[in-house]
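Dear H.,

Thanks for agreeing to be a second pair of eyes. The structure we're designing against is below in token form, covering all 399 positions.
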């Protein structure tokens, strides 16, 4: 497979615009759309509910999709729960573990988290009188690992993102997971920006819980996400939502919950979404995660060099080995939204603003950034076009 040419052929939009907003959501390859079409056109039925053949087929495909996800993150089939997105997955973790905390217990996270991996812990801490502590780090997003070791000591839960959507920094999740496990703390990983862009192996990361979104790196549809629950927590984790599909037996006096994963999936799930997500995972696995990573690294190297040449400050680690395919920057003298609007006039889609990471913006003393973020279908030619537009902009500001 030629990268990115052959991938671009599967994604018609790549021929129409320069899409550099992959951190927000990815474009969708045709095989993903075809897999969902097939469900809606040929075997549209509910799962786990019917003996008729359409329902049997839908159930088979839905559960086969769970298997694809499990293999993708190196989990067991039963440990994969379908959700809406990473935000829902992380909220569910906080709600389902609420009963294990006592006042004064410590939760540790970082100052670089997306709001979805911060607010659930802030709310839990406030409600239960917990201590919420943050691992120190610098303005590039590099964590101080000795401070991490100190803070994680005695913690009950540690929650960290794998990759920052605001700074592009890849955090040392494996090391942090090891520290958490040595302390007997629960380790929660936000893999929203890493899944589909680099290897995510729940065992290697020491994750007890992990959330990811289907619509980002895995190139699936919106509305489908994953919550990985380490089987050791099946009895500890209380399903925040219960009802249809989650039970073994019910009487008017009470109920008995069924086994995972159904125990954690109340109501009719996003069947077409799960099937689309599995098609997305199969698609990126055909390309190869290593090739995806390599292409994004190439683009990051060129874009950061180009920004340096233009005197445009960019954020995140200067050490590009720690920099994922997300580059935040600011054109001095221009608001990030104005830069994004000018880029849009030139057919280039980027994100601007605080990127749901306000504490990061506050730490850097800025109100936002412009963010260019990549996937495997982005090309060096697109980066050159993008840099050309910025060059014109910088020149016009100087004249
Ligand atoms: C690091 C990180 N965590 C969580 C999320 C939330 O993802 P979703 O909006 O799919 O729930 C995002 C979204 O951009 C993210 O970048």
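And this is the sequence the design step returned. I haven't edited it by hand at all.
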């Amino acid at each position: 497979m030629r990268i990115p040419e052959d991938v671009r052929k599967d994604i018609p939009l790549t021929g129409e615009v320069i899409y550099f907003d992959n951190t927000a959501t990815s474009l969708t390859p045709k095989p993903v759309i075809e897999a969902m079409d097939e469900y809606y056109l040929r075997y549209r039925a509910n799962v786990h509910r019917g003996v008729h053949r359409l329902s049997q087929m839908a159930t088979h495909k839905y559960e086969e999709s769970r298997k694809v996800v499990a293999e993708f993150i190196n989990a067991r089939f039963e440990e994969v729960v379908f959700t809406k997105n990473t935000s829902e997955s992380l909220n569910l973790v906080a709600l389902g573990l609420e009963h294990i905390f006592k006042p004064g217990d410590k939760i540790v996270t970082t100052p670089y988290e997306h709001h979805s991996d911060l607010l659930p812990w802030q709310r839990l801490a406030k409600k239960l009188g917990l201590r919420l502590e943050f691992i120190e780090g610098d303005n590039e997003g590099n964590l101080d690992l000795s401070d991490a070791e100190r803070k994680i000591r005695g913690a009950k839960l540690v929650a960290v993102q794998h990759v920052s959507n605001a700074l592009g920094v890849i955090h040392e999740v494996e090391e942090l997971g090891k520290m958490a496990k040595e302390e007997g703390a629960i380790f929660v990983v936000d893999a929203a920006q890493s899944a589909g862009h680099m290897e995510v192996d729940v065992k290697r990361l020491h994750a007890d819980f992990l959330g990811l979104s289907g619509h980002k790196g895995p190139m699936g549809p919106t509305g489908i996400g994953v919550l990985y629950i380490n089987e050791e927590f099946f009895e500890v984790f209380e399903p925040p939502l219960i009802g249809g599909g989650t039970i073994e037996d019910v009487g008017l006096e009470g109920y008995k919950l069924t086994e995972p994963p159904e125990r954690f999936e109340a109501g009719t799930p996003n069947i077409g979404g799960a099937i689309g997500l599995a098609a997305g995972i199969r698609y990126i696995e055909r390309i190869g995660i290593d090739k995806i990573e390599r292409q994004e690294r190439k683009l990051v190297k060129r874009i950061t060099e180009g920004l340096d040449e233009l005197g445009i400050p960019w954020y995140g680690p200067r050490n590009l080995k720690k920099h994922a395919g997300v580059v935040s920057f600011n054109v001095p003298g221009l608001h990030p939204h104005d830069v994004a609007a000018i880029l849009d006039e030139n057919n280039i889609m980027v994100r601007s603003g605080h990127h749901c990471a306000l504490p990061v913006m506050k730490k850097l003393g800025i109100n936002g950034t412009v963010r260019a973020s990549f996937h495997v279908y982005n090309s060096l030619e697109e980066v050159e076009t993008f840099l050309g537009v910025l060059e014109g902009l910088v020149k016009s500001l100087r004249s």
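Two observations from my side: Residues 5-20+288-398 form a domain with the Aspartate Aminotransferase, domain 1 fold (CATH 3.90.1150.10). The chain has two domains: 5-20+288-398, 31-285.

Warmly,
E.
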